[in-house]
Amino acid sequence: MAWGKKGGLLYYQTVPTDLSVSPKYRQIHDALKAAIASGEYQKGQRLPSESEMVKTFGASRLTVNRALRELQFSGVISRRAGSGSYVSGVAAPEYTFGLLIPELGQTEIFEPICRGMAELELDAPHVLLWGKSPSNAADLERQAEESCSQWIAKNVSGVFFAPLEYMGRKDEANARIAERFEQAGIPLVLIDRDIVSYPDRSRHDVVGIDNRRAAYTLTRHMLSVGCRRLLFLGREEPAPSCVARSAGFRDALQDAGLDYSPSLVRHVDPGVASQIHQAIKDVGPDGIVCSNDYTAAHVMRVLEHLSLSVPGDVRVAGFDDVKYANLLPVPLTTVRQPCAELGATAVRVMAERLKNPLMPARDVLLNFSLIVRESTSGVRTPAQA
Length: 385
Description:
The chain is an alpha/beta fold. It has three domains: 3-87, Arc Repressor Mutant, subunit A, CATH 1.10.10.10; 95-209 and 339-366, Rossmann fold (3-Layer(aba) Sandwich); 211-337 and 369-384, Response regulator (Rossmann fold, 3-Layer(aba) Sandwich). It has twelve helices and 16 strands. The chain has helices at residues 24-38, 50-57, 61-73, 110-119, 140-154, 170-184, 211-224, 240-255, 273-283, 293-305, 339-355, 374-377; strands at residues 3-6, 9-13, 77-80, 84-87, 95-100, 126-130, 158-161, 188-191, 205-209, 230-235, 265-268, 287-290, 315-320, 333-336, 363-366, 369-371. It has an eight-stranded mixed β-sheet, sandwiched between helices. Strands 11-10-12-13-14-16 form a six-stranded mixed β-sheet, sandwiched between helices. Helix 5 (140-154) packs parallel to helix 6 (170-184). The two termini are 30 Å apart.
């Protein structure tokens, strides 16, 4: 209810409540207050009538009236008998942040990350802004450049940027975007991954998980259930997070005293079954660690076509714990990222960066969870389902 639209932009005014459980009148109150704070309704402007709000929010007139009374008591609006409710004025948010997340709507982890950003309460209110999501992968770079120009023109307080990945020019595009924000004096907090390849480090704060440690943990689990010939499958043009995962895979094998060679790490297009088939044929694995759940789902399909059972013949694991991971024909063992906490932490990191702009760049790493399901053990713990 607190989402709104103005000038083609979506915004969310943070509110001190969980919208999934807050009373209806509070949802209406917060949505109206957010719209006023963002400038959708200006000082002196008349709000929609109570009848219109009843239809818009699917609430009773009594509920709408209570929300309006709350706004009136706090001085946000004035109510005139027989005329309606008018904006009295509300302090502009102290911070306005831009979201530059090209894969929002395409990669599942970013929606809960953004919600975590939106629902965090800071000492000072903040508004999140972002433009439209690209309709296809080919538009990612162009849309990212357009959003960059948009946030610079609006002189936002800071930008949350999930760097581009899985494209040949990603490093150049990410560096170009970051440089433009630096020149404009707008701080960046990077989400999930850095803009430079592991083990290099950029000049920006990064909020994510320790991908190397997570992959080590996942690979060690595969070894503990009997795997001895493991294959790591990542996507083409891997992001630094994926490179770190392949390093954790290598470390776990070497620490276990098993032979390791670079041929055990393959980069494929998950949508091209022949590439996965070839990697499986070359290595002959009894276990496959995938850089994400999307790749793992495609691997399972190829294994089925090869008449290889999961986990009987080949054990499979992924990363992210996306919504369908537990709904696959064989539920998937995976690493769960604390997405909402990542979003909230990113906002805290940004607030600290604005107060202390000369601080050294930081890696803020949250813990992860290993979720064991049938794809590796054949037995699922109910609490981990």
